[in-house]
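Summary for the steering committee. One of the milestones for this cycle was to obtain a three-dimensional model of the protein with N-(iminomethyl)-L-glutamic acid bound, which we needed before selecting residues for the alanine scan. The sequence and ligand used are listed below.
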Amino acid sequence: MERIDLLMIGIGQLVTPPGNVPRCGQQMKEVQVIKDAAVAIREGRIVTFGPVELVLERLTDIEVAAIVDVGGRMVTPGLIDPHTHLVHGGSREHELALKRSGVSYLDILAQGGGILSTVQSTRAASEQELFTKAYRSLDEMLLQGVTTIEAKSGYGLSVEDELKQLRVAKQLNDMHTIDIVSTFMGAHAVPLAYKGRTEDYVDLVIHEMLPMVAEHGLAEFCDVFCEHGVFSVEQSRRILLKGREYGLIPKLHADEIQPLGGAELAGEIGAISAEHLLAATDKGLAAMAEHGVIPVLLPGTSFNLGLDRHARARDMIDIHELPVALSTDYNPGSCPTESIQLIMMLASLNLKMTPEEILTACTINAANALGRGHEIGSIEIGKRADLTIYDAPNLAYLPYHFGVNHTFGVIKNGKVGVW
Ligand code: NIG
Ligand code: FE
């Protein structure tokens, strides 16, 4: 072993799911807890970890450049937020009163508000303005302990404006500590110019947007808002299959409001993940389990929309043995929060997930929802040294003591991101 760049000692509890692959069903509860632990890092990767005496023994006669003592705090893999609408212009607090008076999310959209209102602000904003706003959000996420996120386009809805959003995401990935994985979501809503002509808009997505996104290498994934009154199952299938021809891996906003068959479609085409799923049927969940589709649950969205329904996380874990992931869904409409720790609390409160399941959902399962299970999402030798340090004695403390930020520090790629 060559020299060590950073040795982290004084870890009261090191808590991580094991391995690289998605953790399904009951496996989600099985996390490794190492007391009085240490982690050694070289060139941004984990070289060794375990009980401190063991690690020190392994490092005998090896030069250590820097040692940091985290004072008995808890450490987990860096948190991963696999579903965000990071890059957008403006905000939608003007819709709050409408929402609170009971007007539904889809009705606001049908009246030209909702997503379409953010489309206007995003089109009007310069790349510099979009960059600055999103950069602030990334700072907030990093402070919460997040080291990798996904970011979707879908507020441009024209060839040029979709590319603009994706270019900004790429620039943010280059400039910010957090890694950003991009998803093309031109099929997020039907723009006003195509009102009543959804098929024509689907053609635009397929024949003009997808080739450009692929040509410029601006996204890894393709997503569609498959929902009653937005894009049908058939239209979603066409877009996602064409996207795959261009090398974009399919994802899906599925069965959020109505049981349209999005979960079934995700299974049928072997999507990497299906997201929301409040209204998914058992048949749909079974299809997802059969084809290894990861459910990404967004409890902040049902909370913020004031719904009394929630995704059936317990059935997904206990009956269908699915590998549940969690995410903020950060966006200016249905879930304006960057706080993954609020999501952890809501997953406990409303989805009845245990602290261990929540950690697995925010680390290794989230990593796999982004096709990065081999690189991030768990503390394993050879993986990226992305670590979050908390001012908390144990895992259950995170959803228990709510409304505050427990993160004490973040290591990203072996370097201090926040302290
Ligand atoms: O995941 N459901 C569709 N898209 C986003 C909301 C976008 C918005 O309202 O601006 C979501 O909830
Ligand atoms: Fe979303």
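Key point for the committee: The chain has a mean pLDDT of 97.
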